[in-house]
Amino acid sequence: MEQNEQLKLENQLCFSVYACSREITKMYRPYLDKLGITYPQYLVLLVLWEHHETTVKALGTELYLDSGTLTPLLKRMQEADLVERERSKEDERSVMVRLTAKGEELKEKACIIPDALASNSGLSKVEFQKALTGFQQLLDHIHAVNES
């Protein structure tokens, strides 16, 4: 590819991923608005619905978020009575995060979101699964490179 072609916006992986991410987040908005949560809050809830309780550090690792981003997010979620935070009794340096009853109740209402998003994507189930797998592999590879 010649130099001028390389620098075209349409040839930038970062732009395609960024723009796609923004469009997908827009697709989530009506569903999340009904639940009264933001997209980052939804991601936190997904982790907690799966694990029930985790440390702030582990949550940050799983969501690729630093504590400077995660702490205010969790504070707002605690103020909304979605999560509880408390220092670990075993290790005072760790802060544990767990769902409240209100946070747990949202799980049932959120169950429709993944299928709705998949069907609204315009992809077949097979294409959607291939895209998901491809993005997961890309994330794994890029993360491994950045960690080394």
How would you describe this structure to a colleague?
By secondary structure, the chain is mainly alpha-helical. It folds into two domains: 25-111, Winged helix-like DNA-binding domain superfamily/Winged helix DNA-binding domain (Arc Repressor Mutant, subunit A, Orthogonal Bundle), CATH 1.10.10; 112-148. The protein has eight helices and three strands, in the order αααβααββααα. The chain has helices spanning 3-6, 13-35, 39-51, 56-63, 67-79, 101-110, 113-120, 125-147; strands at 53-55, 83-87, 95-99. The protein has a three-stranded antiparallel sheet with strand order 1-3-2. A hairpin with a 7-residue loop joins strand 2 and strand 3 (95-99). It is globular, with a radius of gyration of 18 Å.
Count, helices: 8
Given as residue ranges, the uncertain stretches (5+ residues, pLDDT < 50) are none
Shape: globular
Q: Round the mean pLDDT to the nearest integer and report it.
A: 94
State the CATH topology of the largest domain. Arc Repressor Mutant, subunit A
Please give the largest β-sheet. Answer: 3 strands, antiparallel
Order of helices and strands: HHHEHHEEHHH
Structural class: mainly alpha
- What Rg do the Cα atoms give? 18 Å
